[in-house]
Specification:
Structural class: mainly alpha
Helix content: 55-70%
Oligomer: single chain
Shape: globular
Length: about 1000
């Protein structure tokens, strides 16, 4: 890749493959603390370019996925040498301990070392890159030492002697490498050389660091002096790999503890489920924890968290039974009843009592106090290798006294609470269990009911898994209903689960199951948190931000955020990891949503439910209206009709809408869902009012399908409700969409229908908007006189209704029409007036549109210097707003000015950017225009592909019914073909256009 920026972005994604890398991290990697204002946009351009590179290389899938708050590079369909390195070394370390597999370990180490072809990440820089390259360099030395240790153990000292000489020369302070070199010399009968290596190492350590050699080097020296003929010093435990895929070899078993009274050897593990499936990633993480804790320096602790029914206990019991023989001093298993149907959580005193009894301490010997019991417990575990499982923990304080002080114990804890104190204060590994993947869920069903039944009804099996939310407990219960009834089809069970009102009944047999598990968490909530949990289920949305919680509960934003955090900690809500936006977003697991829906209809009155939902609509309408005005200026939006709305403080609104377009983007799914629900449930006004307020998002991000969906459903609802004004606004909106889609005949029909309705509800402002859009239709039909008449009428009404924003837009349109009529001076003068008006109203979008019109005017008269200046201003304005459509148009005009100045390389670069932007937003008309410009740039140089570009553009214009543009492309193609590969004179090209 020729671009250093692309190399930095790709390297950063590769180093964290299969994990989300934030845009901020990518920005830091590229600009190292000094990013330009356009950094986020430039990162997006880099990602687009990388995706295109992968597509051109015939990569079968999308390797780079957008995932909040950045991007993720999937490694499943590509080879990454660092991943190969980690896996090879991990496997080598695992098999190196067995002499019969030494040859395989040797090949793995040699393969890993051969992956280095010089310094890692050479040519890239930055704090993060430098850190990783340093870690990789250190890791290479570790691998070299481990390989040498293996070869020496096998007696192959001649194979590594020369490598060790070079390694010690380059790294004179590496004591392990020096010890290996001493051993190699000793094994070769060169005892004097071995002692000289020690003396040189001691001298270097004393002179450079002021320290004596460590135990590894001293032991090697002692053995050589004694002329020992054994294999020499054992290698130290392998250090941690620099990437998460790494593992470590197990250290030698420490000496046995002093003899003394032997405690009992507990064997308390429950029987593992015979049908346990999945969780390979989590099992691998636990295996790694076991390996990493083998040196016995401190007890290892893991916390497994997740919602009720996610399979925390099943995972721990399954894994513990698999590795139980690794703990010869026994296994403790204690259910501490953190969330129990009838029993309260056990106190620390009670848990310690169970643990001590399990260790063989008699009742008479168990102290009375918590501190004394904890001290005795730690004493009994000292120097012993014991597995301790604390299941269903309620809080950190409940089990803190159960943490061993020293020794080689492993403590596994399951809890619905994240127990952050264990992670921050004790370095515990935290495993958050998520719902099963589709593949895992199918495997579980097949394991329980038999693979033949799943294979016979694969679609029904997949639907059952989906309706169970891929929750293991729900899946087991559903499978349990099928197992004793071989005659019952999977399709029939799926049909029963389709009923949302009765789904929890199916999955909660005998007052237990899913509903009972959820209830145990719900009953422990504070009253406010419980109310919020219930009322959030009223929102017909997949995810929501904290403001929505504040609205349904009618509290301030800060309190809502605190309560939502409580719900997340209680595993009743989860963070949306894939959504973007300025604020964190949350969601229900689908079965928890059904449970919350049950509770809100059981505990809240119909009036309370209606008010909560109305406040949510009112708050969303208010925020959307404010975002609309920030983007389009203070125009005339119809006042919303919601009877309730949460009054958010001005500073909170300013923070939420700091980037109004990004706020719209984050709430896009919410808005569409709320519009659809309002249209279906007789809240007609909310549907069309919300659609009207979301126009900036639809237009600036080119979301034409969303626009059609929202406006059409709102229109149908308004017609059914007899809301004539709402129907008028939505007809006008659909007409605007048809104009965007170049369907001018359809647009004219929709706008004419809107004008007819205005005879029933005379609204001067709405009439002005419809007239302005009719002017656009007339312009594209070629009826410039009619367009000017409509536009002047619209302009007059905008001024009468005191809407300066819309007036500025109409003024700009009138300027465009005058330019196309050949009235260049009048058009430029009107454009300047429109720019001034847009600036005065604070409409950034209006100013950008009108400055772009001025650029088009300058192109018409050939003032290319002014074109470049105005286009650069438009690019700056649109990028600041995230307006990719406006940016693409400005880049196209800039590219035209450049090829007309014969700056061909600059033109190709600019038009390439423009095409990427147009491709990203799916604007086929603009893509065809840009192809036409690129063809002109090539034709001026005699480029061979100019004709092909023009023919592609011509086909696109035909498909879009853009007849005038199709004719223009055809004329240009004739000129290019006539030139027969010779450069076309600029004057000839301009005359043809």
């Amino acid at each position: 890749m020729s671009s250093a920026r692309q190399r930095s972005v790709l390297a950063t994604l590769l180093l964290s493959c299969d994990r989300v890398v934030s845009v901020d991290s990518l920005t830091e990697a590229v600009w190292q603390g000094d990013p330009p204002a356009t950094a986020r946009n430039q990162i997006a351009i880099c990602i687009t370019s990388l995706r295109r590179t992968f597509r051109e290389a015939s990569v079968p899938v999308e390797m780079i996925e957008t995932s909040h708050p950045g991007y993720i590079l999937h490694s499943a369909h590509c080879y990454i040498d660092l991943k190969d390195l980690n896996q090879s070394v991990a496997k080598a370390r695992m098999v190196a301990a067995h002499n019969e597999q030494a040859a395989e370990a040797t090949k793995l180490y040699e393969h890993a070392l051969a992956l280095w072809r010089g310094p890692a990440l050479d040519g890239l820089s930055g704090a993060h890159i430098d850190d990783i390259s340093g870690q990789l360099a250190e890791f290479r030395l570790d691998v070299c030492e481990e390989y040498a240790a293996l070869q020496l153990r096998l007696g192959h000292h001649h194979k590594v002697s020369h490598q060790l000489v070079a390694l010690v020369k380059e790294n004179p302070l590496r004591e392990q490498a020096r010890a290996h070199l001493m051993q190699a010399h000793h094994m070769a009968g060169r005892r004097a050389d071995a002692l000289q290596v020690y003396r040189a190492g001691r001298q270097a350590l004393v002179e450079e660091l002021g320290i004596e050699p460590g135990p590894v080097l001293r032991e090697a020296h002692r053995r050589i002096l004694q002329n020992a003929d054994d294999s020499g010093p054992r290698p130290r435990p392998c250090p941690e790999q620099p990437r998460p895929a790494g593992t470590a070899t197990e250290a030698p078993t420490p000496p046995a503890p002093p003899s003394g009274p032997a405690p009992g050897v507990p064997a308390q593990l429950p029987l593992a489920l015979s049908t346990f499936t999945g969780r390979e990633t989590e099992i691998e993480a636990l295996d790694a924890l076991l390996r990493d804790s083998a040196d016995g320096s401190a007890p290892a602790v893991a916390v497994i968290t997740g919602v009720s029914g996610i399979g925390k206990s099943a995972l721990i019991v399954h894994w513990a039974n698999r590795i139980a023989d690794r703990f010869p001093d026994g296994q403790l298993f204690i259910d501490v009843h953190g969330y129990h149907k009838s029993n309260r959580p056990l106190s620390s005193l009670s848990v310690l009592d169970q643990a001590l009894r399990g260790l063989g301490v008699s009742s008479a010997q168990i102290p009375a106090g918590v501190q004394e019991r904890s001290a005795l417990y730690r004493s009994l575990l000292n120097h012993r290798k014991l597995l301790v499982i604390l299941d269903d923990v309620r809080s950190f304080l409940q089990i803190q006294p159960l943490l061993p002080g020293r020794g080689r114990c492993l403590v596994l804890i399951t809890s619905r609470d994240p127990l952050d104190e264990l992670v921050s204060d004790y370095g515990a590994v935290q495993l958050q269990l998520n719902v099963m993947t589709t593949h895992e869920a199918n495997r579980m069903l097949a394991t329980v009911i038999g693979p033949d039944r799943v294979a016979a009804e694969p679609e029904a099996a997949a639907r059952i898994a989906e309706l169970c939310g891929h929750l293991p407990l729900a899946l087991r219960i559903a499978a349990g209903r099928l197992t004793p009834r071989p005659y019952r089809s999977l399709q029939r069970l799926a049909a029963r689960l389709e009923d949302g009102a009765g789904r929890l009944d199916v999955l909660s047999p005998s007052d237990g199951g899913v509903r009972a598990g959820f209830w145990l968490s719900y009953r422990e909530l504070s009253p406010d948190a419980a109310t919020l949990f219930r009322r959030l289920a009223l929102l017909p949305v997949e995810g929501f931000a904290a403001w929505a919680g504040a609205a349904v509960l009618d509290v301030d934003l800060m309190k809502a955020e605190d309560l939502i955090e409580q719900l997340v900690d209680a595993q009743l809500l989860e963070l949306c990891m894939t959504q973007t936006g300025p604020s964190a977003r949350f969601r229900f697991h689908e079965l928890l949503r059904l449970f919350a829906w049950e509770r809100v209809h059981e505990e809240d009155s119909a009036e309370e439910r209606a008010d909560a939902l109305e406040r949510a609509y009112g708050t969303l309408l208010t925020l959307a209206g404010s975002a609309h005005q920030l983007l389009y200026g203070a125009g005339h939006l119809p006042r919303h009709s919601a009877r309730l709305a949460l009054e958010l403080p001005a500073d909170a609104v300013a923070e939420l809408l700091a980037d109004p377009l990004e706020w719209f983007e984050a709430e896009r799914g919410t808005i569409l869902a709320m519009v659809g629900a309002a249209a279906q449930h007789d809240a007609t006004a909310h549907a069309w009012e919300l659609t009207a307020r979301t126009m900036p998002l639809f237009e600036m991000r080119n979301y034409q399908e969303n626009w059609q969906q929202a406006a059409q459903s709102a229109l149908e609802s308004a017609r059914l409700a007899g809301d004539t004004f709402g129907a008028t606004v939505m007809l006008r909106s659909l007409g605007s969409l048809a104009i965007y889609q170049r369907r001018y005949q359809d647009a004219d029909g929709l706008l004419t229908s809107a004008m007819e309705l205005l005879d029933e509800v005379d609204d001067p402002h709405e009439r002005a908007v419809v007239l302005r859009n009719l002017a656009l239709c007339a312009r594209f039909r070629g009826d410039l006189d009619g367009a000017a008449t409509h536009c002047r009428a619209a302009l007059a009404r905008f001024r009468e209704t005191d809407d300066p924003v819309s007036a500025a837009h109409a003024l700009g349109l009138l300027a465009q029409i005058e330019l196309e009529r050949g009235e260049t001076d009048t058009g430029i003068a009107l454009t300047r007036q429109a720019i001034t008006a847009s600036t005065e109203t604070g409409s950034v979008l209006g100013r950008a549109q009108n400055v772009y019109r001025l650029a088009e005017a300058y192109l018409r008269i050939g003032d290319l210097r002014e074109v470049i200046g105005t286009c650069n201003e438009v690019i700056e304005l649109t990028r600041a707003q995230g307006d990719r459509l406006g940016e693409a148009y400005a880049l196209r005009a800039l590219g035209e000015a450049q090829w007309r100045q014969e700056a061909y390389d600059a033109a190709e670069s600019t038009l390439g950017e423009a095409f990427t932007a147009a491709e990203d937003i799916g604007d086929r008309f603009l893509q065809a225009r840009i192809e036409t410009d690129r063809a002109c740039s090539e034709a001026l140089r005699g480029g061979a592909s100019a004709g092909d570009r023009l023919r592609r553009a011509q086909q696109a214009f035909v498909a879009l019914s853009a007849s005038s543009w199709q004719a223009r492309a055809a004329r240009l193609a004739e000129v290019v073909d006539a030139a027969a590969g010779l450069p076309v004179p600029l004057e000839r090209l301009l005359a043809t256009r």
